Write the structure tokens for this entry.
Amino acid sequence: MFFWYILQNSLIQSVGGWMSKQRRQGEEDEANYYHDRSGNKEKSLYLVLDDWHKGFTIRKIDADSPDLSASPVLQLVSPERGRAMKFAALGGYIIATSNIHAGTLFYDTDTAGLALGPPVPDALLCGSNTFPTSGAGDTLFAFAFHFMEWHVSFEAMAKPPPTEDDDLLPTDWSWRSMPTPFTKDEMIFSYAMHPDGRTIFVSSWSRAVCGTYSVDTRSCKWRRHREWMLPFRGRGYFDAELDAWVGLHEDVYVCSCQVASRSSGTTQQLEWKMADELRMWIPWHQLEFRLCRM
């Protein structure tokens, strides 16, 4: 069963510890970016669950007192039974895609409206896709791995510049292809958005080589950071209080690591910690696991 697992900050204090008095050189404003965006707004949490036989439900719950007994805000029929769908949060939207069919759905959490977005590009069809988002919440990035048939694809979906009436529709968004440094044998092992909101760090693996890269999504320039790997599996999330990336280790323990500098070629393995007492579940009982940022 597919869940979005939620872990409050209070549970990950024991794996933090990089709140340095000296900020990374040239990056002093990055943590402020996240602090400024957090605010004190009332939080609602949206969960996507595959808890009915025809597909998925989206449920809205209070982050401070979670209750799943309320009716879902949306029931979504899967386009093909037995096939997984991918979901991503982008700004006020929950975006739903399939790697079998080209349709993209935008669920607007402000209006509870559902709209069609731009078709998924061919490069993302029939692949194993992951979806990081920009720090500004205006671009969805997608990596697609095609199991050694061809190299990893890197696509970006962005909205056009705002108009005077600001009456943009999801269909106004568009996809574009971006270059990658990967061979067809490499697969994405882990990734994390840098606090600057524009740089993505990606660890890849193959039988012949492994290592970590970073890409500036504005200039589309890649940089290799030698053979070290990010310690978590799948997506890592930046926590401004801890000044660290937090994710789930492949052994399903919560772990954190220092944030790599984007202004220098990081050549050594990042310092990282793992919280032994916070093992979340038995790995082989789950098909997919994910830690979500609140």
In short: The first strand starts at residue 5 and ends at 6. The radius of gyration is 19 Å.
